[in-house]
Write a structure and sequence with these properties.
Layout: H1 2-26, E1 70-72, E2 92-94, H2 111-114, E3 117-119, E4 126-129, E5 132-141, H3 143-148, E6 149-158, E7 168-173, E8 176-177, E9 181-182, E10 190-195, E11 204-213, E12 229-241, E13 266-271, H4 281-295, E14 300-305, E15 316-323, H5 324-328, E16 343-346, E17 357-361, H6 364-373, E18 388-389, E19 399-400, E20 406-409, E21 418-420, E22 424-433, E23 444-453, E24 461-467, E25 470-477, E26 483-493, E27 500-509, H7 513-517, E28 530-532, E29 537-540, E30 547-549, H8 552-558, E31 569-573, H9 578-595, E32 601-604, E33 615-620, H10 626-631, H11 638-641, H12 655-665, H13 676-686, E34 709-717, E35 724-730, H14 733-743, H15 746-749, E36 756-760, E37 765-769, E38 775-777, H16 784-797, H17 799-824
């Protein structure tokens, strides 16, 4: 019996071995668990794909498919004339969708990996929160990139309370929806890879829409919707290519395709052998503005170097500028056109697929002419009025600039009609205000709301309007049985508007009996409860317009006053080293981007020769004259006491500041002397303080940067008061460059207001000091209506002056009435 069992086992092993060999030859599918992609020693091609010898491998960071793969054929795109064309790449295999909470592929810093990725996220930190949220922005692609595009990858992690069975991404390219993808990565970072269908992408501008629909696992309350979030990682959010085309550019227009890196940063690296020559500084600064206006990325930094870096990174535009002789030693493939005349163009792509931009010529004059050619398609006619703020790289469409009474439908602002079945609806749009906007104390705009709510919505629900994340208006829903709003006017205060783009958010908080019951397994979001129509309009009335100085908000929002300077803006640098020049170029390029055109800048050898014209000062604070520091109303000792711990004692605290601190500490205690107790009573009962009840604005207090501040922007006036001076300073050159790069990022640049904006490195936030006594200057022709609005805003900001003016007017009216009655009374 034992021998029979041995014979049977041997026969079974033999049959199983033959079957396994046969299965190894065909391999119709693979049920093994996912594992990192490895290059097989002898790849076997599926029947639907061409031979392995003619097929390009997928990117190194690609994960194996979680479901049967399919082939993608790149869409044929018409090529522009006189441009090298990359032949259509053979089809490759990518997963339609790859989901889960597994670890994300590590970001590779090798040129081979980055040259096959086009990072697309313009936000350093992107958190999509609530039951619905979305972002929409534009990216620029070259013909070669369009041909080679394969898939869109998203790296993310979500809150543990997000229900995966009813939560998903909503992604579209050029308004073409991609495959749905679940949100299910609460424990660690997950990834989804979405196939890009042929013909969806186009050469030039493309619109990316990234949104989420999220539902809570167990809770049905309004408060629970604030616990829903999905964080998107810019390092693992990109378009993957099947060829090395991410950084391969052929003509000047391709500068727009530079894009960000895995940290949402765009670096413009300018290699200038003549950097140490002060006579060449103006040309380099003008070149940096031309490149910044062409890339138009929200988080871009200019960096000057004297020799090219050996490392090739994504999101970096490498520019070599100088005469042909200067560049010959550092560029082995210098185009021959550079020796014949002015030349601005790309050379042949280097290994790794990155192309350097050459701006050169046989003489310095030819180099200057080559720089000017970069402005050919981005210059604006003198005196031409802009109509939009260029925001497409981080928000699409561009934000309209509202200069006077205007009504704009939401359809013009990028919003579409939408239905919603959850508990908290939220959507947002942007409008732009000019640099001389002056209506923060009295003005009101109107939102003409077109919306509807179902009979499920209970009284107690409400619609809230936010301006720059500050509550501006609330409309209660008090009717049962549903309702329709048709151009319902909602007054929205304008106090939170500022120069530049402004975010307006519409939020509907919806209460229903179904949510109060919160039955287990009840479907969520299946029946629409609320609808917002794109015929809704925002109405901005005429408002006061007058310039103020100093005003960092006007500079950050629209480049004022440097965008409209009649004479060149003076630029004073404490030294012409790489860090200082890079910081100055980053600031000036940021001003050119918000202004919409280049800033005419002239470097000066000394601050003493500037006079009273508009000026910029960039450098370490210890290198500037003490008289200049006082001109910005800074504490003079800040030059030596900025950083605590260097052996220098910090300056004594201002007595008024110290007294105010103690007032807060003993709030509610006993006040003796003066009228402080009366002021405290007015604050508690009527929300009136000494700042509100003032006849004239308070005097400016000198500012001293604290130890936690590593960089600051300060603005003041020239000695005569005619010019506006702006100081960018830090304790060291390294902190100057790092601080400038940090504060000019899109998520912080909007916080630059007042007369001082200081960057706190540890907290990663901007601290500001408001202007107490601004100087006003006229920005347009005389208008009685405009001056009436100016007076209304100023009097609303100074209540005591308004009260005295009102009392004086009433007294004058009473006296006039008395005189008239005396002259025309009955005794006559």
């Amino acid at each position: 019996m034992t021998g029979c069992n041995i014979i049977r086992a041997s026969l079974a092993a033999l049959i199983w071995g033959v079957a396994a060999a046969a299965m190894a030859q065909s391999s119709p599918f693979d049920m093994s668990p996912e594992r990192p992609a490895q290059a097989p020693s002898a790849p076997v091609s599926p029947p639907v794909l061409p031979p392995a010898a003619s097929r390009q491998p997928p990117p190194a960071a690609a994960q194996p498919p979680a479901q049967p793969p399919f082939a993608i054929q790149p869409a044929p795109v018409p090529q522009p004339p006189q441009r090298p064309v990359v032949p259509p790449a053979p089809p490759v295999t990518v997963p339609a969708r790859q989901e889960g909470a597994g670890p994300a592929p590590a970001q590779s810093s090798s040129p081979a990996a980055d040259s096959r990725r086009r990072y697309i996220l313009p936000y350093e930190k992107l958190s999509l929160s609530g039951e619905m949220d979305r972002r929409q922005w534009g990216i620029y692609l070259t013909p070669e990139q369009v041909n080679a595009a394969v898939a869109l990858n998203i790296g993310y992690q979500n809150a543990i309370v997000v229900a995966p069975e009813s939560s998903n991404f909503q992604v579209s390219l050029n308004n073409v929806p991609l495959d749905a993808a679940r949100i299910e990565a609460p424990d660690s970072e997950g990834n989804v890879s979405l196939k890009i269908p042929p013909g969806v992408l186009q050469v030039g501008a493309n619109v990316v829409t990234l949104g989420v629909l999220q539902r809570h696992r167990t809770d049905c309350t309004i408060q629970s919707t604030y616990d829903l979030w999905t964080d998107v990682n810019p390092a693992n959010t990109y378009i993957s290519f099947n060829a090395d085309v991410a950084g391969a550019f052929a003509n000047i227009d391709d500068i727009q395709a530079t894009g960000p890196d895995g940290k949402a940063t765009t670096l413009i690296e300018i290699v200038a052998p003549g950097l140490g020559n002060p006579a060449f500084a103006d040309s380099l600064l003008r070149l940096s503005q031309a490149l910044a206006l062409r890339t138009q990325m929200p988080n871009q930094t200019i960096r000057f170097v004297t020799a090219p870096s050996a490392e090739r990174r994504a999101g970096t535009l490498t520019v070599l500028v100088g005469t042909a002789r200067e560049l010959a030693g550092m560029a082995g493939s210098l185009p021959p056109e550079a020796s014949a005349g002015a030349f601005a163009g790309f050379a042949t792509a280097a290994p790794g697929g990155l192309s350097p931009l050459f701006v050169s010529g046989p003489t310095p004059q030819a180099v200057q002419a080559a720089i000017e050619t970069l402005f050919s398609s981005i210059s604006r006619a003198p005196g031409a009025q802009r109509t939009t703020f260029s925001t497409r790289s981080w928000h699409s469409p561009d934000v309209p600039l509202i200069l006077s009474d205007r009504r704009i439908a939401l359809s013009e602002l990028g919003l579409e009609s939408s239905e919603f079945g959850g508990r908290r609806f939220r959507n947002e749009f942007y409008i732009g205000m000019p640099a001389d906007f002056y209506a923060s104390a009295y003005g009101e705009a109107s939102l003409l709301l077109d919306a509807a709510y179902s009979s499920q919505v209970l009284p107690g629900s409400h619609i809230d309007i936010y301006v720059n994340d500050q509550i501006a208006s609330t409309v209660p829903i008090s009717n049962n049985g549903g309702g329709i709003f048709r151009h319902l006017p909602i007054n929205v205060t304008m106090r939170h508007l500022k120069p530049g783009p402004n975010k307006i958010t519409i939020e509907a908080v919806l209460m229903t009996a179904q949510d109060q019951a919160c039955a287990p397994g009840a479907p969520a979001g299946t029946t629409p409860r609320f609808a917002l129509f794109d015929t809704t309009e925002i109405h901005i009335p005429d408002y006061a317009r007058i310039g103020r100085k100093p005003d960092l908000a006007a500079m950050a929002g629209a480049g004022q006053p440097y965008r409209a300077a009649e004479s060149p803006v003076a630029l004073s640098l404490d030294r012409f080293d790489t860090d200082t020049m890079s910081a100055a170029a980053t600031l000036i390029s940021r001003l050119a981007s918000v202004a919409g055109h280049p800033i005419n800048v002239e470097t000066v050898a000394s601050p003493l020769v500037i006079g009273d014209r508009d000026a910029l000062f960039v450098g370490t604070i210890s290198q500037f004259p003490q008289a200049l520091i006082s001109q910005f109303n800074l504490v003079p000792s800040s030059q030596v006491s900025w950083k605590v711990g260097t052996g220098v004692q910090p300056p004594a605290q201002n007595s008024e500041t110290l007294f105010n601190d103690w007032r807060q500490r003993v709030d509610g205690g006993v006040w003796e002397g003066q009228v402080s107790s009366f002021e405290d009573w007015m604050k508690r009962n009527f929300d009136l303080s000494s700042e509100t009840l003032r006849f004239l604005p308070a005097a400016e207090q000198p500012y001293a940067p604290s130890a936690n501040v590593s960089f600051m922007l300060a603005q003041g006036l020239s000695p005569s008061g005619d010019g506006v001076w702006t100081l960018a300073a830090a304790p060291t050159s390294a902190e100057l460059l790092d601080g400038m790069s940090a504060i000019t990022r899109e998520n912080r640049w909007g916080d630059v207001t007042g007369r001082v904006a200081a960057y706190d490195t540890a907290a990663e936030k901007v601290e500001t000091v408001e202007v107490e006594r601004p100087y006003f200057y006229v920005t347009g022709p005389f208008s009685f209506s405009n001056w009436r609005l100016i007076a209304a805003n100023w009097l609303s900001s100074n209540v005591l002056s308004y009260s005295l003016a009102f009392i004086g007017f009433v007294s004058l009216l009473g006296f006039a009435t008395f005189v008239m009655l005396r002259l025309m009374g009955r005794h006559r």
